[in-house]
Amino acid sequence: xxxxxxxxxxxxxxxxxxxxxxxxxxxxxxxxxxxxxxxxxxxxxxxxxxxxxxxxxxxxxxxxxxxxxxxxxxxxxxxxxxxxxxxxxxxxxxxxxxxxxxxxxxxxxxxxxxxxxxxxxxxxxxxxxxxxx
Amino acid sequence: xxxxxxxxxxxxxxxxxxxxxxxxxxxxxxxxxxxxxxxxxxxxxxxxxxxxxxxxxxxxxxxxxxxxxxxxxxxxxxxxxxxxxxxxxxxxxxxxxxxxxxxxxxxxxxxxxxxxxxxxxxxxxxxxxxxxxxxxxxxxxxxxxxxxxxxxxxxxxxxxxxxxxxxxxxxxxxxxxxxxxxxxxxxxxxxxxxxxxxxxxxxxxxxxxxxxxxxxxxxxxxxxxxxxxxxxxxxxxxxxxxxxxxxxxxxxxxxxxxxxxxxxxxxxxxxxxxxxxxxxxxxxxxxxxxxxxxxxxxxx
Lengths: 133, 300
Fold this sequence. Notes:
The complex is a heterodimer. Chain A is of the alpha+beta class.
């Protein structure tokens, strides 16, 4: 099975894998070989895949997943490998976003910030879990 | 005949100018390369999105989506993408000419880039918002703009959204474009635009149906319309991002060509001035010799 993670800026991940668990908007979604063709939406969270018996994670943002012919394609606006996470920077960003959120009274801005916060939390979650290992 | 020292001074000043323009040319060349790479890096994203859109279109009634319907308002919104700085030949002028003739006078304008903002203010157009985008362009920045535009469109005061930008054809050619962004025409969904991924060599996306094996089509979770609701705004985000990248690549290539011209001109000028300098020097020597010989003749 093949997994592709693409953002508008780059192809973050592209490799042969054994299985993958995606943060779908309807809950986590485990994909094994020979899955039926499926398209679903993604919410910010942790994408875990198993390759050669070992598990690895990516923090992903909002997006779409397409599965066909043993090919899992993830279209998202953010994708960060677990090893590339800069926890202190993300925590600072989260702090900033929370402050902005309490300062703003424009609904559209608040929604955008809310989204950013969700993404930061997703990144931190991935980081925290990996550190526990 | 001009003063020798004056000519020498001019030569050195023109040489300095040539050095600066040469440096600017090299910087622009590398920045252009970066913008191009960035646009091509998003290529797989566009391909995949198109594939999903083409399949989605068959499974749900896409015409009901608000971003595919003409807005309820009576005003147009124009997003104008220009450069912040000059020295890029006729790039902005060509684009602004089209905007000033083709765009509705009573439209609201959203600008990216100082040149466009100033021109619209001068023409007395209604400026709604102005965004600055750093170099290199980040998707997060461009999404702020597209989200703002989508919100405006859905607010019900806007009929349609058009975008004026410079399309990068190749290093020598940049084409000013005035494209409709919203409402999206259903027929365009899933089709390649020539400004996506550094067009020029773009070809229509093949609709792939056969590769789903025994399955009739995709399963959409939770539903096809829900997926459509998610993907259409992302489609708009991506379009705006690509338009900005095209403009950036155009800017840098135009500047590179302009600076190459300037460097060539400066070098030619140094050549001419050196010739003039040598002539003047020769003339001075001849004059001196003449004076000496006449003086000697007079003494005999």
